[in-house]
Write a structure and sequence with these properties.
Number of strands: 13
Strand order of the largest sheet: 6-5-4-1-12-13
CATH superfamily of the largest domain: Metallo-dependent phosphatases
Shape: elongated
Amino acid sequence: MASRNAEVVPLVIDIIKELSDEGFGGDYAKRTSEKLLSEYNVVRSKGAVLGMLRRNGYSIARIKHQGDLDVDKVIDAYNLDQYAPVEYKIDWDMINVSTHALHKILCIGDFQAGSLTNAHGHDPTPMETLKARFDILKRRFGEVYKKEPFEKLTVFMLGDLVDGELIYQGQKTLPIQQQVIGVADLIYDLIMYLKAFVPDITIYSVAGNHGRLSKYYQKESNWDSIVAYVLSLRLENEEGITFDFDEDRYQLVDVDNWKFLLHHGDITRSFDPNKWMEIIQKYKLFRWNELDAVVFGHWHRIFMGETFDIPMFVNGTMYESPFVQEVLAGKESLAFLLLTVGQENPIDKVEILDLRN
């Protein structure tokens, strides 16, 4: 009789594969628990089955679809080829069509509000430029909701809300007070617009590198945190809206019992597991086995990949950066991610809200 989890996991995987081959359409975790007891005399609850899989880098969907992923079908199913500037790294089989679409996550950030310079040259009215992008975002969100209504929304604010001051040589910006007040107003209007569709909204926020008081100040001093604080005060009496305000550079948040690590993304530009292990050891932010998914911004390009079998999502931008396009010779994704929270996976579906005119 198997007793240790290390001995039970292979049995669990075999049972799930058998159920899948038989076309089973019920609760896989519950049925697996029952078959463990009846066929192997192993006592494991439904929750224990799910926990074992998660700790070992598996999921029910991953096992059911293992070896069957057709990347071309995934790209076609989610229209991923319709946004030319975006590069996608889809080498994992966790994205699948789901009937559970009650809870979505909207990723926003990298507004760099107040920059008088963009990839097209001088911008004398940066807040008006940004407002136009926000209007497109509202329209795209409404289009998605009309096709697939949902009841809960989580918003991840991923930093670089303002362009800041004295971050790099020759930086030209509006005064910082105009940046802070202006972007807070735009985000507030966005949240109130979203609430007209979704009655239950939870917001999390992390600070970006452009929010630093200058590149010489410690990273804990950050204008993005001020924007988040102002928003939390303005929204605290709004029924149905929860703002989980934290001044840390990262947040480990719970979304439907899935653990998401949020960070601006300036700690690395790589999915390399060795690099992430260095980050874990250096910052002692978390234990890797605590995580189900990682979401960050900063790169100005949408990417999807995995590290240690944990899905990682990189959001796009609202700001066309001359630094990214000229210095780094990079293409930017003027788009934001809208993620559907799954039951058997942290994310079941990925949608891209195109912010181009």
